[in-house]
Design goal:
Radius of gyration: 43 Å
Number of helices: 13
Largest sheet: 8 strands, mixed
Shape: elongated
Number of strands: 38
Low-confidence stretches: none
Structural class: alpha/beta
Strand order of the largest sheet: 18-17-19-20-26-25-24-22
Oligomer: single chain
Helix content: 10-25%
Strand content: 25-35%
Length: about 700
């Protein structure tokens, strides 16, 4: 209970001051002239002036408020190393017990970075600010941080804390901790396929002598490409070949340092997106045909394709006496294309091509070697595949996946996906394939052939193959056994997905990673990490995901569609994630290349010492205290808030008003009696 006086003047403050000055002058004149009753007249003026000020007696009922102590518990990934988790829980329990015995104390426990992998580094002061957002600064008695000392949002100015109270720190871990880490310093985001990119990295040993020689294992897409030996503490650059389009995952791993704290930062990775300078495609049309424009339009519409197209306009049997040197404006550079520069092409397409004496047999031998060495050939066959001049009657026979039977079936039919075709990335979920019959136009011819190798993706009635694909050595081959794909392009009977089919087929031949039959992919979707497995098999084994902190998570993959299996897990840690499924592995990096959380993992008192000293707090290492915590002392009026074995909490005298009473002095009868009493006293004295 507290009492006081408050004023609610009837006049504005300037006018009240003017009246007061006038009353003071009159009282002064009365007293100076020694007029009878001057004192009582001055008293009457004072009472009148007080009445205009309208004073009131107040009575307040106050309830004392508790002082708030914030206990911030570091739940970041680095707190799981060594004995830190156990030390944290012991300190937390002891603090809760001792704070509970103090009177007038409210404890706010805040867990920082618990289950949140969205922020880079340990942000205890952001968590502290959020935990005290609804607490007035005058109620804060102090803050106690339980952490390994690696805090990445320490304010430079203590005033930024928003309160005037001590900040104490209880540091987990032990002195003399050792750790080795590898960090990337300079990494490119893109690289031209077939060229090299330079990556700069550095190996750092903490708590160990500098200058050690360290063997580094460098992998690209899981395959070891180099094992250089570097000096710890020095930056090293290495050139990496960009072998394919899409992400090229380059991983760096160093061996463990004896007695080191953790292996989580002994490896790191970067994804360099491979970009093809130009996809060089050679299209050779055996004769002018209606489907020729379909191929040309498709390839010319892609800005990344550099197309070289030749058409044999006059076959040898059509002799009209025209000299050979006048048959074309530009001579067909067969030697240049099929001998000296054949390796420059990513794909060679034969569109209804038959032997016409233009290409000698030796050039077909070159094409076979080109495919086995990693090249790609697509044969779009028509009736030419049945003639004596068929490409099958050349050295290409040994790499073609289909054997012609010597006849063609000319009847309308819907080309359907085979069971393997429903799972293969080239034809999986091809638009229109979900219905029966497929929602695309019919073909009217299929070249009868027997599949002897590879995979049949599309078939005609009677299980006659329409599209065959095969791997030959390091290269790939495709055989299209119908020359009516142009009906889809022309929109006959509604057309068909010719662009999707031919583009996927071309890119599969050119080894596009997304179109690999057996592939494991790791991607980030929102707050989840998605594992995708492409396969031609009927089932897949469970996948194993390794988190940046080294924990293993088994995942059961569910079939999303034929040939595609998928599962997801929360992406709750920053750093390098790894997924494995059988012999396949995939990597994904979440957040920055070198997460602050794992950049320095040895515990320290130095980071929090400045802010603790500026606020009067202290920093103690729990291991030095034998597993206990400093005793708690409530301090009211002292600048010293910490000692060797004690930590202080500032005592706060804060209360809230629960009720208030108001009694105006000059309201009603009481005010009238005071005024009349003052005037009567002046009149009585003056009348004597």
């Amino acid at each position: 209970m507290s009492y006081g006086v408050t004023f609610s003047p009837f006049l504005s403050l300037p006018l009240l001051i003017a009246v007061g000055v006038l009353a003071l002058v009159l009282a002064g004149l009365l007293l100076a002239s020694r007029t009878r009753g001057a004192v009582f007249r001055a008293l009457a003026l004072a009472v009148g002036l007080l009445a205009l000020a309208n004073p009131s007696f107040t009575r307040e009922e106050r309830e004392p408020l508790t002082s708030v102590v914030a206990v911030v518990v570091d739940k970041s990934a680095s707190q799981s190393f060594g004995e830190r988790t156990q030390q944290t829980e012991v300190a937390r329990a002891v603090l809760a017990e001792r704070l509970g015995k103090l009177s007038g104390i409210e404890v706010r426990t805040v867990e920082a970075d618990a289950g949140d992998g969205s922020a880079d580094g340990t942000r205890l002061f952001s968590a502290l600010s959020a935990g005290l957002a609804d607490v007035p600064p005058e109620r804060v008695a102090g803050a106690i941080l339980i952490t390994d000392g690696r805090v990445h949002d320490v304010p430079e100015n203590p005033q930024a804390l928003g309160f005037s109270a001590p900040v104490h720190a209880l540091v987990t871990g032990r002195t003399g901790e050792r750790d080795r880490r590898v960090a990337l310093e300079k990494t490119p985001r893109f690289g031209i396929v077939g060229q090299k990119q330079s990556v700069t990295f550095k190996v750092t040993d903490e708590g160990a002598p500098a200058g050690a020689r360290v063997a580094v294992t460098i992998r690209r897409d899981g395959e070891v490409i180099a094992r250089p030996t570097v000096t710890a503490g020095r930056s090293t650059s290495v050139d990496v070949d960009i072998t394919h389009a899409g992400p090229n995952i380059v991983e760096f791993e160093v061996p463990a340092l004896e007695g080191e704290l953790t292996l989580v930062n002994n490896r790191t990775a970067v994804a360099i997106d491979g970009v093809r300078d130009k996809l060089r495609v050679l299209l050779v049309s055996g004769e002018p045909n209606v489907g020729e424009r379909t191929w040309r339009n498709l390839l010319k519409s892609d800005a990344n394709v550099d197309l070289v197209h030749f058409t044999i306009l006059r076959p040898p049997e059509k002799q009209d006496g025209t000299p050979i040197n006048e048959l074309s404006l530009i001579a067909f550079p067969t030697r240049e294309l099929f001998q000296t520069k054949i390796k420059d092409f990513d794909l060679i397409i034969f569109d209804r091509y038959a032997q016409q004496g233009v290409l000698p047999q030796v050039y077909f031998d070159n094409i076979v070697r080109y495919v086995r060495a990693g090249g790609a050939v697509l044969v779009a066959a028509g009736t030419d595949f049945l003639d004596t001049g068929s490409l099958y009657n050349t050295p290409l026979e040994e790499i073609l996946p289909g054997v012609p039977r010597g006849d063609a079936t000319d009847a309308p039919y819907h080309a359907r996906l085979t069971d393997p075709g429903k799972r293969h990335p080239v034809t999986r979920a091809l638009p229109g394939s979900e219905t029966d019959p497929p929602h695309w136009s019919r073909f009217f011819r299929v070249i009868d052939a027997q599949a002897r190798s590879g995979t049949s993706l599309m078939s005609a009635p009677g299980d006659k193959p329409v599209l065959l694909v095969d791997r030959v050595g390091e290269g790939r081959v495709a055989l299209l056994l119908s020359d009516h794909i142009w009906l889809w392009a022309r929109g006959y009977e509604g057309g068909g997905p010719h662009i999707d089919l031919l583009r996927r087929l071309s890119h599969w031949l050119m080894k596009e990673p997304d179109l690999e039959e057996e592939r494991l992919k790791l991607t980030v979707s929102g707050r989840d990490l998605v594992v995708e497995r492409q396969t031609m098999a009927e089932s897949v084994p469970p996948a194993t995901v390794t988190t940046p902190s080294g924990a293993l998570r088994p995942l059961t993959l569910a079939q999303a569609e034929p040939g595609l299996w998928r599962a997801a897990t929360p992406a709750d840690e920053l750093g390098l994630w790894r997924a494995s499924n059988g012999t396949l592995t995939a990597l994904a990096n979440i957040g920055p290349l070198n997460p602050k959380e794992f950049a320095e993992v040895t515990s320290t008192r130095d980071v929090l010492a400045p802010v603790a000293a500026a606020t009067g707090g202290g920093v103690w290492r729990l291991a030095d205290l034998g597993g206990s915590v400093p005793r708690l002392v409530q301090v009211s009026a002292s600048d010293r808030l910490a000692g060797e074995d004690w930590m202080g909490l500032r005592t706060r005298d804060v209360s809230v008003v629960r009720g208030i009473g108001l009694f105006p002095l000059f309201a009603g009868l009481s005010g009238l009696l005071l005024l009349l009493g003052a005037l009567t006293a002046a009149w009585v004295r003056e009348g004597r």
